[in-house]
Every structure is written in C-alpha cells, then in structure tokens.
Amino acid sequence: xxxxxxxxxxxxxxxxxxxxxxxxxxxxxxxxxxxxxxxxxxxxxxxxxxxxxxxxxxxxxxxxxxxxxxxxxxxxxxxxxxxxxxxxxxxxxxxxxxxxxxxxxxxxxxxxxxxxxxxxxxxxxxxxxxxxxxxxxxxxxxxxxxxxxxxxxxxxxxxxxxxxxxxxxxxxxxxxxxxxxxxxxxxxxxxxxxxxxxxxxxxxxxxxxxxxxxxxxxxxxxxxxxxxxxxxxxxxxxxxxxxxxxxxxxxxxxxxxxxxxxxxxxxxxxxxxxxxxxxxxxxxxxxxxxxxxxxxxxxxxxxxxxxxxxxxxxxxxxxxxxxxxxxxxxxxxxxxxxxxxxxxxxxxxxxxxxxxxxxxxxxxxxxxxxxxxxxxxxxxxxxxx
Length: 385
Prior knowledge:
Elements: H1 2-11, H2 21-36, E1 40-47, E2 50-56, H3 59-63, H4 71-78, E3 82-85, H5 86-92, E4 103-111, E5 114-123, H6 131-193, H7 199-229, E6 237-240, H8 241-255, E7 261-265, E8 272-275, H9 277-293, E9 301-307, E10 311-318, H10 325-328, H11 349-359, E11 363-369, E12 373-381
Parallel strand pairs: 7-9
Antiparallel strand pairs: 1-2, 1-5, 3-4, 4-5, 6-8, 9-10, 10-12, 11-12
C-alpha cells in the first residue's frame, strides 16, 4: 500500500501548478499512463448535458463516441470502476480495432460525491490490469477529480472577471457622455441661481454636488479598467514632493471647503523624487478625501512630511472612529468597503493609492485604533545622487 501511495503522491505536485483545463487533462492522462505503464488514455466529461470525450492521447479515441447507455456512462452514473477486454470494446466500437490496446480500465471522476467524468486508460497487455494497478488508478482518480475541478473554477473565475471588466468599461464610457451634458446644464443653472436664496437655488446646489459625486465614481471605474487593460500609464520624471503636497492641499480646500487641513511641519525645498506627479496627487486626494469623510467635521486633519536616510515620509492623520483591527489588512483591496461604511464610493480609492505607490517603489501602511483615528503613512524613496 505504501508503494501505491508513493507512486500517486509523486504525480500530485504537478497539479499544484496553475494549469488551463486542456493542460490539466493532458497532465492527468500522461500521469495515469505512466503510473500503470499503459499505452493510451482519455478523459470523458459531462458538458452542457452531453457526455463526451474532452481529451484523448490518441486521435482514434476521439472517433469512439461514448454511448448514452454504454460502459463509460455506467461508470459515470454508478461511481464504480470497471475493466473491459478488447473483445468487449471491438464488439461495440469497431474503431477500437485500430487501437493497439488489449485492456481498458475506466475510473470514475467525482467531486463532493457528484460525478464529473470518467478517466480511461488502455493497455497493450493481453491480461487484465492487476489489482495493484487497479488500486493505483482508483486512488489517482481522486487527485485527478480535484485537479479538474480546480482548473474549472479557475476558468470560471477568469471568465467572470473578464465579463465584469468589460461591463465596467462599457458602463463607464456610456455613462460619461450623458453626464458631461448634464454637468454643462447644471453649471448654467448654478450661474443663474448663484446669488439667489430660494428652494430652487438649493435644489441646483444639490444637483451639482450629486453630479460631482457621480463623475468621481465613473472616473474610478475608468481608472480600474485602465489598470486591468494595461493602459494606466505613468510618466516618471524628477518632481518636487512639496509641490505635489501643495497642489493636493489646494484640491482638498476646493472639495471640502468646510474642513480644515493642517500642515504640521512645513516641508523644506529640495524634496525631489522620481515619480508621476499627477498620479501622486491622485493618491493624496484619495487619502485626504477618506479622512474628510470618516472624521468629525470640527476636528482638523493633519498632514506631515518628513524624511529619514532613505525615504520621504508623508503621514495623514484624522481623528475619526478608526478602523477595526480585523479590517485594516483589507482596506487596500479592490472594492473593499468597511462593515460600518455608509459613505459614497466603490471602495476603489485606497486600492488605486497602493497600486500607484508600489509602482513608485514605495510603501503605504495604516495605523488605526477605534475612537482614536487613523494614520496613513506613505514612504517614497529618495532620489539617489
């Protein structure tokens, strides 16, 4: 028994590699053939209500179609392996005469007690498969079933992601055109009602705020799509970190005029890095925006710029409710929103921030405690001279 287990386990690690479905079928059949020194092999699966051969090591096997009430289908239905002689196969499938095989073993493939297919292995030997070879293939069938299901789930996930990305791209592009028109008319209304105090004027201001919010959401969707499609380009050049912070603070004052942002330590000149200034401003916009959303309006947000021997360090601190410890490792994941997060947004901002900082060979971390607030720390490498 130990020898059987050893043989099967040696084949197992090959299924741990990321394989496509076709690659998985090929590896399973090749390993099964090697395990019992057979000649041919194939895999039959139930696909879209039809029981058919998904892979075969010989083109002849593809011509042998499984019958609805045949031996292979019986193995699939009953979960019971079987061995057929050449005479039995030739009687049912004349094409089998072209195959130099004398015995055919059929092993059921199942996942969570549900049949998914049948593994067949054909031998040139005149005698039937031995009990030992039979046991090896039955045990190997469990590994093969797991490998097939793993590959199927990976393919399903890949297709789902592709459909999602396509939907995001189409939706964002289609929404952007009518939104541009709406924003234009809203701006005209704002100009007309800017000096008036009335219900209509307040409605127009609310329309403006909502259109800005929707514009930001669509922009986030487009940025995610650019990242997935490889068109999220960076323009790296020498740039001033102090200028990046100055522009981010101006943006913050426009977006959150009622909030106070304090630069605790005035940066010195000479904070020069190699980076994409627009992308880094976007990082600060996202983090400062989160700090404004999740902290009390009357308490200022603190921004600090310092340095050590190898990095420039930006810290943004708020005095909000804080982030539970269990959620802190998740905040940089795409589409993650905290369990108590009722604010607008898609959970994209911090994911984009981390992606951009990593592309700058930097790091971004969070320190937070409930009722005491949150500090986001960004480290960017100094320009080597």
